[in-house]
Amino acid sequence: MSVPDPAPAPPDPDPAAPEWLAAYLEQLRSQRKLSPLTIEAYARDLRELAALSVALEWSQIGHGDIRRHASSLRAKGLNARSIARKLSSWRGFFTWLGGQIALPANPVDGIRAPKRAKTLPKALSVDDAVHLVASPARAHGTPLPADLCNHAMFELMYSSGLRVSELASLDLHYRKADAAGPASLGWIDQAGAEVLVTGKGGKMRTVPVGKAALAALAAWLAVRTPPADGGGALFLNGRGARISARVLQLRLKAHGQAVGTPVNVHPHVLRHSFASHVLQSSGDLRAVQEMLGHSSIASTQVYTSLDFQHLALVYDKTHPRAK
Q1: Other C-beta atoms lying within 10 Å of the C-beta of residue 125
Q2: What SS3 state is found at 186?
Q3: What is the DSSP annotation of 205-221?
Q4: Is 85 a catalytic site residue?
Q5: What's the CA gap between 202 and 186, in Å, rounded?
Q6: Residue 321 annotated to the active site
Q7: Which of 85, 153, 236, 243 has the fewest CB atoms within 10 Å around its CB?
Q8: Catalytic: which of 68, 200, 203, 211?
Q9: The pLDDT of residue 308
Q10: For residues 81 and 116, is the Cβ–Cβ distance under 8 A?
């Protein structure tokens, strides 16, 4: 009876890391199937903890050590979000380590990151948003296909509040999964004046499309050539392939600068503007939540603050006793 060859030992994720750190990173890779970028982020955070605790073994690091490390990071100017991520990385490691060796306790338990400053999403005024998406890229001469593509993308993004990834993944029509690729994640229903998209968590939703966006789409489709790869992508780059989120972002930024938009414009600004303007006009938070694809109403409630800012601005400008 032949004896099977032993399975090769998994490569050490980081030969310079301590033994337990290497084993933990291998567990993240082989059992939890985390992505290489995520594993590298864990590795950086844990190497930083090892450097901060250079005179201590992993089992000797205590609650007070972690608290001091977190305070030192804050003193160095690290923001609350980054500190929270590091604490999460450290906590997960010690939870795993406690299953390998005896630990008095998880030294990270009970330690919270500094409170994050609440920042409101940036939104354009109604006039600025309309000027941005309605302004042609070329004031004179016949627009190029790329100009018509940009106009259709920007109008649709503002009209329906789409995420940049949702916009880039749109197909002209629904496509079933086949040898050429997977099924469509989103597509346009021009007759129904709707767009169907797949958002976070794989959840599909339907959002109305306004007349201005439909007109811009019709102008783009009149000059659009089939994608070079034979796929069904709605919006294309200069090589005839599906446009990427990054190229879309760069095009919108350049367009905003060209038409004189007073702020730096990125795709999420149009999504925020869509939500803020619909809420200002309707006051229907649940409808805005559904159109944005938010799982929790709490994510949508931030726009009520923007709505109040708009009302406060109107008050300051118009009330005779406001100043």
Answers
A1: 14
A2: strand
A3: EEEE--HHHHHHHHHHH
A4: no
A5: 11
A6: no
A7: 85
A8: 200
A9: 54
A10: yes
Q: Which two tokens stand for residue 244?
A: 């990427």
- Of 63, 131, 266, 294, the catalytic one is 294
Contact 11, 23 (CB under 8 A): no
For residue 54, is it left (φ>0), alpha (ψ between -120 and 50) or beta?
alpha
CA nearest neighbour of 172 among 155, 190, 154, 188: 188
What is the rounded CA–CA span in Å between residue 193 and residue 156?
11
Tokens of 143: 């627009």
pTM above 0.70, yes or no: no
Q: What share of the chain is helix, strand, coil (3-state, %, to 5)?
A: 50, 5, 40
Question: How far apart are the C-alpha atoms of 250 and 268, rounded to whole Å?
Answer: 13
Q: Residue 183: which of 193, 171, 195 has the closest Cα?
A: 171
User: Residue 294 catalytic?
Assistant: yes
Say how far apart CA 297 and CA 285 lie, in whole Å: 8
- 69, 271, 272, 277: which one is catalytic? 271
Find out whether 231 and 180 touch, Cβ atoms under 8 Å.
yes
What token pair was written down for 186? 């989103």
- Distance, in Å, from the CA atom of 28 to the CA atom of 158, rounded to the nearest integer, reads 40
Catalytic residue among 67, 74, 85, 268: 268
Q: What is the pLDDT of residues 154-207, one digit of tens each?
A: 999 999 999 999 999 999 989 888 776 788 899 999 999 999 999 887 889 999
Give residue-wise pLDDT tens across range 55-109.
788 888 888 889 888 888 888 888 888 888 899 999 999 999 988 888 888 999 9
Catalytic position from the list 151, 163, 272, 277 = 163
Lookup: tokens for 74: 């804050």
Amino acid at 119: T
The closest of 192, 198, 206 to 160, measured between CA atoms, is 206
For residues 135 and 47, the model is more confident at: 47
Q: Let me know: does 267 contact 157? Beta carbons within 8 Å.
A: yes
Active-site residue 69, yes or no?
A: no
* 200 tagged catalytic: yes
Q: Is 29 a catalytic residue?
A: no
